[in-house]
């Protein structure tokens, strides 16, 4: 339950990215700088946290062991996750992106066969290839039905181009984020705490963001002071606080794909927080009754998903122990 609560708090702070990315886009900022500046500004905050805990040398030592894997999977988990989300903000409002982003609930479950679960048996830990949690996937579909209800009325207001470029990049991001996160958990092998792993992935993803920044300078010029200021807010809220909370939650259930899928399902709360945030900060109109029904369905689906994952996980452990 602690992992679920951490996931919900993470969703609250993650919502800042959707809201402020849309705000920066509406004020004329480039999606390239919305993505790059977030990770540039994350470095000093994370570095300070790790230095205060006196864990920097250990992190660098672990990274040196397999630096190319760090760069590859950090670029996937952070680069191919956040750059497409920022690109999509050029074509769709935050609520639509946040809603489509909930595909990560399905994406995370579909990735299960590519990883191994650690199951404790009477003979010791047993390494088994993960299986797609079919029942949990069904509960995830309930969440997506709720998200569809939120979007159905407003999606008709956008052109096919806006829908295409506002949705497909987010679907790509929905696979990249859990894939990069889980691969880095394998590479680090439980030797790093959450702060170290987030800093390590941020540092390892910098080549990706530097290349994108060079492209940004040549195509759109330097960012405005307004965009720099909003990027700092996103870096602290979504980049540091939310990422640490979410990674801490996934670390707590590492090795159990069913409970891991449940933690990732908590991110469905982002769409609720984004809707409310856009109403307050961007003066977005009040959602319709159908949208509120959709939000309620999302919450019901999340509770059922969490309950089923815990029940199934406990039953599986009892069966293996027997």
UniProtKB/TrEMBL annotation:
<keyword id="KW-0812">Transmembrane</keyword>
<feature type="transmembrane region" description="Helical">
    <location>
        <begin position="101"/>
        <end position="120"/>
    </location>
</feature>
<feature type="transmembrane region" description="Helical">
    <location>
        <begin position="31"/>
        <end position="51"/>
    </location>
</feature>
<dbReference type="InterPro" id="IPR032713">
    <property type="entry name" value="EmrE"/>
</dbReference>
<feature type="transmembrane region" description="Helical">
    <location>
        <begin position="201"/>
        <end position="222"/>
    </location>
</feature>
<keyword id="KW-1133">Transmembrane helix</keyword>
<feature type="transmembrane region" description="Helical">
    <location>
        <begin position="289"/>
        <end position="308"/>
    </location>
</feature>
<feature type="transmembrane region" description="Helical">
    <location>
        <begin position="163"/>
        <end position="180"/>
    </location>
</feature>
<keyword id="KW-0472">Membrane</keyword>
<dbReference type="Pfam" id="PF13536">
    <property type="entry name" value="EmrE"/>
</dbReference>
<feature type="transmembrane region" description="Helical">
    <location>
        <begin position="132"/>
        <end position="151"/>
    </location>
</feature>
<protein>
    <submittedName>
        <fullName>Multidrug resistance efflux transporter family protein</fullName>
    </submittedName>
</protein>
<feature type="transmembrane region" description="Helical">
    <location>
        <begin position="228"/>
        <end position="248"/>
    </location>
</feature>
<feature type="transmembrane region" description="Helical">
    <location>
        <begin position="71"/>
        <end position="95"/>
    </location>
</feature>
């Amino acid at each position: 339950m602690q992992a679920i609560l951490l996931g919900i708090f993470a969703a609250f702070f993650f919502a800042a990215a959707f809201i402020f990315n849309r705000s920066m886009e509406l004020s004329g900022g480039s999606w390239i700088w919305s993505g790059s500046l977030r990770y540039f500004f994350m470095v000093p905050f994370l570095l300070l946290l790790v230095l205060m805990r006196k864990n920097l040398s250990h992190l660098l030592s672990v990274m040196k062991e397999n630096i190319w894997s760090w760069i590859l999977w950090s670029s996937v988990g952070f680069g191919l996750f956040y750059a497409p989300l920022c690109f999509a903000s050029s074509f769709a409002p935050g609520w639509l992106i946040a809603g489509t982003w909930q595909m990560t609930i399905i994406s995370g479950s579909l990735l299960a066969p590519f990883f191994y679960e650690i199951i404790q048996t009477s003979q010791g830990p047993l390494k088994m290839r993960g299986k797609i949690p079919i029942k949990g996937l069904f509960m995830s579909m309930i969440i997506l039905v709720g998200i569809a209800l939120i979007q159905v009325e407003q999606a008709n207001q956008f052109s096919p181009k806006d829908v295409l470029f506002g949705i497909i990049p987010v679907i790509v991001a929905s696979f990249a984020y859990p894939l990069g996160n889980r691969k880095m958990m394998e590479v680090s092998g439980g030797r790093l705490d959450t702060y170290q792993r987030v800093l390590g992935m941020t540092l390892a993803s910098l080549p990706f963001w530097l290349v994108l920044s060079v492209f940004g300078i040549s195509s759109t010029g330097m960012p405005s002071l307004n965009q720099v200021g909003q990027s700092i807010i996103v870096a602290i809220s979504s980049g540091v606080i939310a990422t640490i909370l979410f990674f801490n939650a996934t670390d707590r259930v590492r090795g159990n794909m069913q409970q891991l899928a449940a933690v990732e399902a908590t991110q469905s709360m982002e769409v609720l927080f984004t809707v409310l945030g856009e109403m307050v900060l961007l003066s977005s109109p009040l959602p319709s009754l159908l949208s509120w029904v959709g939000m309620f369905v999302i919450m019901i689906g999340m509770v059922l998903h969490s309950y089923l994952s815990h029940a199934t996980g406990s039953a599986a452990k009892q069966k293996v122990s027997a």
